[in-house]
Every structure is written in structure tokens, then in C-alpha cells.
Predict the 3D structure of the following.
Amino acid sequence: MPRTKSDPPLLDAMHAEFLGGPVAINVASRDEARVPSIARAYGCRVAADRREVVVFLSRRRSTALLRDLAAGAPVAVVFSRPKTHETIQLKGARVRIRPLAAGDRARMLACGAAFATEIIALGYTESFSRALMAPAGDDAMAIAFTPDAVFEQTPGPKAGQRLEPGP
Amino acid sequence: MMAALYALRRCFEGAVPASIATCAPDGVPNVAKLSHVHYVDNGHVALSYQFFNKTRENILDNPRATVEVVDPVSAAHYTLQLEYLRTETEGPLFENMKARLAAIASHTGMSKVFRLRGSDVYRVIDVEAVPGEAGPDSPPRAELLSGLRACVAELSGCVDLAHLLDVMLAGLERHWDIRHAMLLMPDPDGRRLYTVASRGYPESGVGSEVRMGEGIVGVSASARTPIRIGYAVQEYRYSQATRQRFAASADGDALETEIPFPGLTEAGSQLAVPLVLGDRLLGVVYVESPQEQRFTYEDEDALAVLAGQLALAVELLSRNGEHPAEKTMPAAEPSGPPAQAQGTPVLIRHFSADQSVFVDNDYLIKGVAGAIIWKLLREHAEGRAEFSNRELRLDASLKLPDINDNLDARLILLQRRLAERCPFIAIEKTRRGCFRLNVGRPLRLAEATAG
């Protein structure tokens, strides 16, 4: 049954906090022939009502992905925290592609810095960690979507389980 | 132009998780993290199949997948277009991935979670560098190829097995700064390997044994494939406890446990490379380091080439051991009674059940090497000191397991155990295929009875 505005949001407050935390973010779509496309994202913002998720991409590093999303293909986004392996995947039927809005750039840089700090503490070198998050630069843009499914993907027995909204 | 896959091998070390995108029959994409992408060859990679999940469901329906890998030094990203081909559940690739996965699991605290069910092999359709400024890179390592050349050149000058193995181990340290290394050879029963030479350990561990298929050396030997691990892994380590357990297994051929395996207690990196000629396993070179991620794909390449050369050299020397000159040589002449030994008498006991030999109450050796030293000592007591390899080969009482058994390796083992444990008895090589037994103290030989 299609979800309506009156349904509770799929994401609970803990999820929303997790998505905006020190997580690796990878975005996927596919073309008409069902050939997948993939790109890294450099940060995330969840709307106050938790019905919209925005992730930030580098335009030139996401050419195939943006082509597929612009053609109206669905999106899948995985968020994984290296320190805990905690992982969830969101899916959305389509995305809105738009330039960064006010506050987005600062948000993206903060996400990148937090992620770099976390992986440096895990033993990755500083030069690697900074280089990994550096592409969050001038060609950044945003994609926004409404999650219509949330999956637990932390390695282990519950991996793959579809998460339902809380009461 | 498609980037060469081998140039990206650093991305396949499992240091940075990769990501995989697939697509379901209804057109819904799926994206997941991958603990590692395994380099198979320049046109293939393999992914670990651990759980039946959405990724797997998708690729069984639609074999196209897109994977993003990350260089752990420069942070450069590469996109691989893949097509799923097949799943392997045994053999070299599977064993290799199982060891690598165990290492990554151990490193990331996921040992109870990660378990390899199969190796999913994919054809690489395209490799593309994701545009962007990569971070600082590390320069290529020139020492590997020049070191290989030097190591190989040194091997060619060796005229006997003991010298060959020592030169090889010394070369590893001199040219590649590999400070902990050993060489093991298979017992002809095909069930275990024994240490013939080592370098870089407080105790040489010569004579220690590991079971085929157990630990990194045993797996490398049984699967005939190099195994390389970049993190400390419990499952592939030779702790005394696990060796006791192997030794106690019910197949009746007890493993040597009196001599401890010389390996590092906390190896951060391990690499075992089999010496193979045709379908014959001649041995395993094992190197290790306390440092994590010490050995790269390039180290593995270099050591694999060296192991190939070493296998040829071992084979050549073993054929020379059967040289006509040795065969036609008369049995060694007794060279008069051995020099009178001085000092307090030492009790040497022999247990025929397992051919073990004890010096006073200290264990020396058992098995074929035990039978050999017992024969030599008995004949020495009757006034002989000069012996030949050939007479040992022909002596049915020694029960040399097979003509394929490397007698030279047994003698090296014996010679080194004596040097370490019993310096007043020494085997001294006199000329090709001949040696002298030197005894520096009076001995009392006793055939012990069991019980």
C-alpha cells in the first residue's frame, strides 16, 4: 500500500542521527538496461520531519549515477559507520537533483571532517583520510529523496531485514 | 582506455571496504559494503559469498554489478563493471579468500560473523578511474625486482641443500629485509611438513612439524597456493595448544610436538608460498613480520618467482644426490678407530616404537632422523666414523619411507638438531654424498623398552 503523508516517517530519531554521523555513504542507481551505477557521497542531512533525506555528491565523480537518477531511476543509499560496522540502506523511488542550499556546504564539510576524524582514530593515515573526503568541493550538489524502505545491513543475523516505522 | 586491473591491486588488500551496486528484476537498485574484493587475474575478481543476501539474489538474476574500490594510500576511487560468472567452494582461490577474510574479520573484530561460503568469480568488463585529485602516492618499490635478481643469482652457486636453504634465507633478509623466515618440506606420508631451515628466531625450530591443511603453511601446501595475511589471525597461527590438538587427532601418526614451531607469537603479517614442480610439492617458504600489512601483492609475486627457482634448485640437487658417481662409489672405508672421546659418559637412549632418541634425559629427534642417528651411533661404537648417503638409502632397517624422501633434508635436520642440542656429536660433510660422525664424549647406548 503506498505510504501517505499521515503515515509516521520510516526513519526514527535514532536513524536520523546515525545518517548524519560519521558514516561512509555510497549511492547507487541503474540505467534502462539495469546496469548499476555507483558513487560516494560526502555527507547527509535529514529533514526535521524525517521524511526527506539529502545526500551530497561531487558532480564530476558521479556522472553515470546522476545520468541514471536524472532519467528517473530509483535510488539506493548505504550508510555504514566504520567504527561499529553498523549499516543501513535506504531506498527511494526517485530523487530531486538540486544545487546546494544555504547551510548545505557547511553541513557537508562538517560530515567529511567528522568522518575523517573517526577513521584516523581507527588507524587510517591522516593523508588518506583527508584525501578521501576532499572531493566534497566546488562541484558539490545535492540529491533529495523520500525513503520508502529502510534495511538493516549490519553484518550478522539481522542483515537484510526490512525495518518498519515505530508505533 | 581501460585501466589495467593489476595496477589497482593495492585496492584489493581489504584495507578499505568497497561498495557494490546491483539491480533487482523489478529495476530497484541495491547497494552494499564489501569487506574485500579479491584480485584473481588481470581480467577477473572474486567477491566473498558469506550470506545469502539481496546482492546475491540480484546477481543470480542479473549478472551485472558495479563495484567501487578505494586505494588505501592515495584514496583514489575506481569503478569496476563486472559480470558474475560462477561460485567456487573449494580449491586454491577459495582457500586464499578464506584466509584473507579470516584476517580481515580478525582485524575488524568480526571473526564470529564473517564466514566464507563461496568465492563468486566475476569477469571485469571495464575499469574506470573516478576523476579527482588523488592524495599523495607511494613510489614503486624498486628493491623487489633487483632483490629477486640478487637472490636468484646467489642460489645458482649452491652445491648442497643445506647451503642452498641458508643462502636463500640469508638473501631474503639481505635483499628484502625479511627477517623471519623458514623452509618446510613435506613428509612423504603427505600428512605433515617439517621445518628444515629457519632464520630470525631465538630457537631454530628445525624438526618441528605442522599438519597439512592446518595453519597458513599447511593450507598453502595442501591448496598449492600462496597464502598472504596482513593482520594477526588466530585461525592461521600455530599456538602450542592447537598443535597439541592436531597431534592428538586419531589418525595414529603423532605430530612432532617436542620441538616447538619457531614462528613469531604475534605475527602481524604472514606469507606462505609453496614450492611446486609439476604436481609435486617440494616444500613451503614461510615468511612473517610483527608489522601488519608488511607483505603486498608485489612481495607475493617476487617470493613466488623465487620459490619457483628454489624448487628447481632443490630438484636439481636431489637428482645430483643420485649422481652415478655416488652410486658407484664403494661403501666408505673405515678410517681407523675414531679418536678417543673425553669427559663424562653420556647416556643415549633409543625407543624403537617411534625411533625417538634421548640424550641423557633430553629429547633429540624421532622418526627417520632418529633411526639414522641411532644406526650411526651403533656403528660408531663398533669403530666406524665414515659413512655415505648411499648406504643410508639402501639400509632397509631405516625404513626410509619412499624413494621420494629427501634424505639430504633429513640429514640437514639431524645435523642441526645435533648442533643445537648435543654439540659433542656432529655430522661433518667430507665430500659429495659422504660424511663423518664426530663424537667428542664417551657414549653409553641403551635400547629402551616401552613402558
Notes: The domain at 13-152 of chain A is CATH 2.30.110.10 (Pnp Oxidase; Chain A). Residues 104-121 of chain A form the longest helix (18 residues).
